Amino acid sequence: MTKKFRNLIYGALTVTLAAGMLTGCSSSDKPEPTPEEGSSEVVEVDDETNEDGKLFDETLEFSYMGNIWGDHPQDGNAIFDEMMERTNTDIDFQWFPAANYAEKVGVTLASGKLPDMIYGGDIATLVDEAAIIPLDDLLEEHGQNILKAIGEEDLKYMRHAGDGRIYFIPTILDYPPAYSMQIREDWLDNVGIDEVPEDWDEWKAAWKAFKEQDANNDGDPTNDVPFSGDIYSLMPAFGLNVADKFGFMEDEDGNYTLAYELPEFRVFLEEMRELYSEGILDTEFSTRGTFVDNVELEKAFHANIAGSSMTWAANTRTTTDILREIDENAKLIGVKPIKGPGGHQGIPQRKRVSGSAAITVAGEDKAEDIVKFFNYLFSDEGIELMSYGIEGEHHEKIDGKPVLKAPYNDGFEEARQAGLNFTPVPHVFDGDAYTQLTFAGKTEEELEETTKMFYDALLVGEDYFFVPTPLLNTQAFAEKQAVVFPKIEQLLAECVTGSISVDKFFEEYEKLKPVGLQEILDEGKEAWEYIKG
User: Fold this and answer.
1) Which residue from 14, 92, 414, 471 could staple onto 63, CB 3.0 to 4.6 Å apart?
2) Torsion angle, CA of 143/29/356/55, rounded to 10 degrees?
3) Full-model pTM
4) Which superfamily does CATH assign the domain made up of 179-348 to?
5) pLDDT tens across 4-34, in order?
6) Are residues 248 and 11 in contact, defined by beta-carbon separation less than 8 angstroms?
7) Residue pLDDT, tens place only, 330-348
C-alpha cells in the first residue's frame, strides 16, 4: 500500500447487518459439549479463576454504551446477572434505541465523556476521532478464546483498512443460512401453475399470471404485487452478487467494485424496466425491501398482496401463520434462488462475524481486564451461558448437552426476551441452540408444518450461497458517499420506472465519478487488495 494511500485511508472494514440478524455458531463447527459442572476444564480462559471461582479478585467495573432493538431486554435479565456474578464484574449498560443511534454516538464523541466501550458506532469514525484503541496485542495475550472463535479467514473482514489492526470484538454465528427466495405456493395453485418456477422465463410467466389473474382471490386484480421488495435482491440472478443497497461486490477477477460498473448491470436494468412496465415489480421497490426496510416488506406479505420476494427465511413461517387466520390454504414457501437469463443463481449467506464492540480511550486503563472478561464469554462456559442461559432455569442437561426448556425454546422472540443470544454484546451463539430455537423444542420429525417450512427455507438455497463483500469505509467513501449514493439510488429508480432511459442512467452515473465516485472506487479497490494480502 502506498504511503499516500495509508494517509488517505482511515476507514474500517465494516461488516453490515440486516436488522434483526440472529447470531451464533453452527452445529457443524461448534465447540465440544461443555464438561459436567465441577470439571476443571469447564472454562478455557487464559487467566485462572480465583479460589471463589471468579475471574477477578477485585470487581471489574466498566461502562458499555450500545444500541438495542427488537425483543432484547434493556432493563437487565437473569443471564446478565449470572454473567457478572461469575466473573465478578459490574457493568453499567447504557442502552439507546437503534433509530438515530448514530446521532447519539456523535453527541457522545463531541461531549468528550466517553463510556469504556461503545457498541453500534461506526468503527471508521471512531478510529478517525481517535476514540477507540487497537486490540491486536490484547487479544494475542488475553483473548485466545476470542481469536480461536474468529478464525484466520475472518480477520480480513475485521482489520482496519488503513493500518491492518483490529478495533472491535465481534459477535459470531457460523450458520450461513439466513435468506431465501420465497413464493406463495397457493397463488401458484390459484393461477394453474403446477410447479415452482426455476429459470427467468418461468418466473416471469408466474409473475404475469399473478398480475393478470387476481392470484390472492380477493376480487381486486389491481392490488397483487407479483414481486415485492427492493430490486437489489434480484441482482444475483444476473451475476451481480450484492448484499446491500450500496452494490459493492467482487468482479470475476477479484476486484472490489460496484455492480453498476459491470456489463451485466445493463442487462439487469433493461429487465427491471420491462418488469416494472408490466406491473410485476413493487411500485414501492425503492422504499420497501430486504435491504431497505424489511418491516414494510413484512407488512406487504401480511396484507396478502405480495406474491414473492427474497427476504429472511423466517418470513415463510410468520407470514403463513398470519395469513392462515383468514385463509387456511395460504402457504409461503422457500425456493431455490432464481436462475437468471445468463444462468446465474445466488443468494447471500449470513455474515459470520458482526458487531462493533470497541474499547474507547476512556477504558484503556481497564482494557486488559475487559478483554479477559470477553475471553470468558467466548469460553465453553461463556458460550453455554449466552446461548442456553442458566442450567435449571433456561436449560437442562440431557446426555451431557444443554437443552433449552419451555418457554425459552418456543422461538427466538421468547429466547431474546429472556436475554439469550443478546446480540448487542459480543458472544458466540452456539449453532445447536439456533437449531433448537428454530425447531421450537421439537425434533425435525415433530415439527409443525410452518416451522418445517422455515427450516426448509433456510437450506433450500444452500448450493447457491455467496459470501457478501463487506463495505469498506475508506476516506473517500466516508466523505463522498452521502452525495454519491443517494444520487445513484435516485437514478436507478428513475430508470426502472421509465422516467429516464438506460443510456441516460449511465450518462448521469459517469458524471458522478469526477465528484467522488471514482475516488470511492479507486480507494476501495486498493484497500481490498491490501486487506486480502
Assistant:
1) 92
2) -30
3) 0.81
4) Periplasmic binding protein-like II (3.40.190.10)
5) 333 333 333 333 333 333 333 333 332 333 3
6) no
7) 999 999 999 999 999 999 9
